[in-house]
Structures are given as structure tokens and as C-alpha cells.
Amino acid sequence: MFRAGLYARVSTNDQQTLPMQSRALRDYAARRGWTITMQVREVGSGAARREAREKLIEAARRREIDVVLVWRLDRWGRSVTDLLATLQELEHLGVGFVSLTEALDLTTPAGRAMAGLLAIFAEFEREILRERTRAGLAHARQNGKRLGRPATAVAHAAETYAGRSLAAPADVFGVLRAWKDQFR
Description:
The chain has helices spanning 17-32, 51-61, 73-76, 80-93, 109-142, 153-160, 168-173, 177-181, and strands at 3-10, 35-43, 67-70, 96-99, 104-105. The protein is an alpha/beta fold and 184 residues long. The chain folds into two domains: 3-123, Resolvase, N-terminal catalytic domain (Rossmann fold); 152-184, no CATH class. Strand 1, helix 1 and strand 2 form a beta-alpha-beta unit. The radius of gyration is 27 Å and the shape is elongated. The mean pLDDT is 82.
């Protein structure tokens, strides 16, 4: 019998789907004969750090759950890359993953094949992002935009104090004579 960790999430407090998700997850776990060991609910946008999800992953790392059950993939992962990374970690830990809405069950061979397809799409997403970034940088350079970190204070100091002694910055900033003497 599997020990299940249930994860339900909505983006904002005013959404009414959190109780519906939780009910559907509990019903599914009961039909499969799984014991619900942990149930977490989270409210937050996709970009925010998901602390409740992290607690569920920590439970998986401690071998307290055998399967993670979610309502939809987009409730679990922020992006294809994030989704794939967490699914790979769960697989490495020997923890299954089931998404109700997509009928994705990584505890089965067909589900694991689907996870392989997700990996391909995640790599595709990374390559597209890399190409867009390179194109944007090239466009900025062509338009004369200076890229990279701004010049540091050291670089400015070298220009400002060119031809002066090492004590010149101390004179400018009114630093004590004892300190300046170290650099003469």
C-alpha cells in the first residue's frame, strides 16, 4: 500500500478550487487504496517560492511518502524545466507521481514514457530561451548598448588619479596623514 502526499495549490485566495482539488485528491487516493500520509495546500503565484511543495519534497527525501498526488501538472511545476527537475528528483528517490487531470501516472511504464517526453520538451524550452537571449544581446550590441557589469570604483579611481601618487585618494577623501604615509 502506497503512502501518498497530496498537493493542492491555487494562485490567489479568492479561487474556490482548493477544496475541490483536495476532495478529488482524497477520493482518488481512497479508490487506489493509498494511505494519505501528508496533505498540503498552498496559495501563491507561480513565480513565488512554494514552501508547502518543498515540505512535501522533504517528506519524500525522508522516505515518508511513496507517491505525490496533484490535481494538475501546472499546479505542481512553475515551468517545464522546474516540473522536470522535481519529477527527476522524485524518480531518483523512488517516489511516484500522479497528476489527476492529465491522467499522468509515473508509477506505470506508460507514465514514465510520458516523463521522457516532458524531458525532451524541457530541453527544447531551454534551447529556445537560450536563442532568444543571444538574439537580444546581439541586437543590443548592434544598437550600441553597453552590456555587462558597470565599471567598478577601481576603474574610475585609476582614471581619476592617473599620474598622481598612491596617496592622492587619501587627499581627496580627507583621510588621516598616518594612513597616507603608508602609500608614499
